[in-house]
Protein 1
Amino acid sequence: MCGIVGYVGQKKASPILIDGLLKLEYRGYDSAGLSTIETNSISNIKNKGRVNSLNDIPELSTLEGTIGIAHTRWATHGKPSVVNSHPHMDNSKTFSVVHNGIIENYNDLRIFLTNNGYNFLSQTDTEVIPNLIHYYFSKDTNNDDKKFLRAVQSACNDFKGSYAIEVISSLYPDRVIVTRKDSPLVIGIGENENHISSDIPAILSYTKDFYLLDDNNYVEIYKDHLNFYNSNLEKIEKSIKNIEWDATAAEKDGYEDYMLKEIYEQPKSIRETIGSRIKLDAPSCFDDLNFTKEYLSSLNKICIVACGTAMHAGIATKTLIEHLCNIPVEVEIASEFRYRNPIINEKTLAIYISQSGETADTIAALKLAKSKGCKTLAISNVIGSSITREADYTIYTHAGPEIAVASTKAYTSQVVLLSILGIYMAEILGTTKSYVLEDLKKEIFELPNKMQTVLNDVSGIKNFAKLVHKEKDMFFIGRGTDYAVSLEGSLKLKEISYIHSEGYASGELKHGPIALIEDNTTVVSVITNEDLMEKSISNVQEVATRGAKTFVVTNQNIDKSRFDYVVEIPPVNSLISPALSVIPLQLFSYYIAKEKGLDVDKPRNLAKSVTVE
Ligand code: AGP
């Protein structure tokens, strides 16, 4: 999705802005641009394509301004083109704006402005913003220092939709004004300089001290101070948050790609997720949760709502939570949930999982549950992200920044965190014998070492990937939690290798999909549940008989000679096995994509954080 960067300081702004945009590239975009304040005028440079193409524009090297705003655009209104790229300026070229999100009523505003003599050059929703700011600015007869701010606020009062906005003006060459609603924006504090971004990693190399903005906050950002205002433009105080991630954690650290680095980080990220939340011989605890037996006993169900990989983490842990807590768990796709009338009420605990914490559908689904009286719990990886501000409770995965579009370490952290949550609730409820919970805790503690064992030898996975990388279709099958992880394995393959694949419950094969199996179709199966092992093996045999190439991930004692390739993983309780069995599937997709020469970190048509519908 789109990305925002800004700088107010004493250095030349343009190289800093470009550096920030490059760090946002992983979000996906189709054009880029920046504006700086030069002597009494604004310079605007933009281009279709990569951020680096801005360096080909000769004017860039002439920019001396020390204040600027910049943007990577992912087209929503109007095709990718120079004219549709941000920043957008008003007709008089007094104001320049970059914007993330969508102004839903832009058409009405465009008609209003056109009737008031304004012209539009682009097809974007964004172009109404600088023109509306100009409109209100020119109507304001009070020429005090807050006139610029008032014009921005008046314009925002007219917007329906979501936005994070940076505005500069040639009339106020000492400041950037920013505001947000339902779209992320942070301010990084430096020595005689301040940085702005939609994403923390973009400015992490400059500072670790951040201000996180709430919806409808307005901020005047100068090089040496900031003024914060609420929606009525009354001054407010904000406190600085120290973000522990260091800059190198957000870089590739010697790995060829972010995705590979993040796959290999999983033993570490799981240790962080566990933290001090579980202890042997002591009750589990979440600093930010205060669930009581009375509250948990009153629940009629738990709804887990999310998108994509995060939703798969919900499917993977549904069985564990039901089994330990004896509460029904429904897992829902956020984009479906938000548009139906789900039967939920104050007796429903609604859990929302989102790595980024900015996924539009997940946030909207959370708001719906709140309006129906549910208590809402957000699970996110990004501190202070939008979803965490909406939810009644938040628990963080602490997986560290995930840059690759394909989610890997966030998934395993979500699975582990939900498992710990299940244990925590079962302890309060008293629904599971304590020795069972203690055993599960031990298994969770052992996960990082077991993950490391899987990561230590990937040669077999690499070889099998090489063998099948030219395939057009593949299947991922499993039963129980192995089915859940098959869905995730299939999504990983699709998104980074562009190979069509389907995740199926093994028992469903005979109800249709087996018709698609022919000579050399690759079928990947996961077998980690002893009770379901025989049945799962029979299903793999059924496809093998029809000519399928079989790749099996297992920790069961099976006759390897019956399959084309077997990856053995350490034994693990099947309730938490997805956190381990997914790793060979992540690597399988990764090596196939590499074999095909694809950009694994930035797959086509995808963005890291889906902040619009
Ligand atoms: C995962 O590989 C995908 N990129 C995608 O499905 C992702 O999990 C989904 O968009 C949800 O994102 P979130 O966790 O940030 O809400």
Protein 2
Amino acid sequence: MTDHKLYIVMVGLPVRGKSVTAVKLRDNLRCDAIKARIFNNGDLRRKMIPNNTSYAEFYDPKNKESVAIREKIALINLNRAKRYLKKSGTVAIIDATNASLQRREYIETLLNDHPILFIECITDDKEIVNTSLLRKITLPEFTHLSREESIASFNQRILYYESIYNPLEKEKNRVILDSLHTKIFEEEISDEIPLYDQIRDFLVTDMVKNLHIIRHGETYFNLENRIGGDSGLTDNGKAQARALAKYFANKDIPLIFTSQRKRTIQTAEPIKERQRNCTIVPFAEFNEIDSGQCEGMSYKEIREEMPQVFLSRKKDKYNYVYPEGEGYISMEERIERGIKKALYLSGPSGNIMIIAHRAANRMILSHFLYRRKEDVPYIYVPLDKFYYISATPNKKLFQQKRYQ
Ligand code: F6P
């Protein structure tokens, strides 16, 4: 009989998306009625050791005392994982850096009763690493340190891990994942790995349980049908932002992704105020289409003063690029990057909110909703409603909702 139980061993430096990936795998396996559990060394350390272990020297590979403590924690978790599979569990996910070859050889010796799949998470995106780090230092174990001290301490911890880090290379069953772009860089499967088809699919699928795609409130430019610019919200726009804040007050929104334009940030601010713990994260990736020489003009002015622009755009709106500006086609790459960053930073389980613009939102929507390219620039993006998307491997839900 083929063995149908599996160990998944996560590998990677801190803040590289290991836990997000582990949770995504566990939740999706559970959706398929497969018993899966995560064994996280960091969580166990925080529970078991009453003293604070957030200080950088605790991770120094030369600090014999702390190395012994960390090894003990790893061993407890490995034994727990083993017991779990001996009993009723099907997939045990070991979530830790498992950075050194030595540690992984030890795991292979100990977990010798079922196959092991190693999944290494990597990302070199500096902004993503820094933003994840800023979220990490909100853990209670950092409260005794200032923000700067916490950042320095966490960066030193990463350096210690880097000093012992060996990327996956010789492991028989290994996947190297770009965890930001949900893209597999390298894949080597030598044994029969149970559930591998499902697991592989989960790794490369974008999962969003509750994604809210919102357009900013009404602006002075909207009143005059002017495009681009950095206009602020009108009184009506501010009232729309307050209505959104009221609508979302009872939902937990830890992060609001906006563009770098005033109108999206002004829409996000009242929402943030009514939340307990919420951060606004402005991404250039979600800025509105850059209309180049036409920035600030009304559609009527473009038709009258630049008829060639008006006609060419009308003929092929998706592929048309404004002189010295952008087109839908040239927004594709940055919008995709923004979505990946927002999903990565939010993790698979909670609420995600993006507040952007008409063209930007069309491109975001088209990432989740199939539309022929020529129809994307016409997706309906009203100022007074938002889109709600829930997309998991088993279910896709797409709704337009009123908030007032
Ligand atoms: O009018 C608001 C706006 O967001 C402009 O800033 C932008 O150029 C435009 O909508 C995008 O819509 P369309 O591609 O239909 O012109």
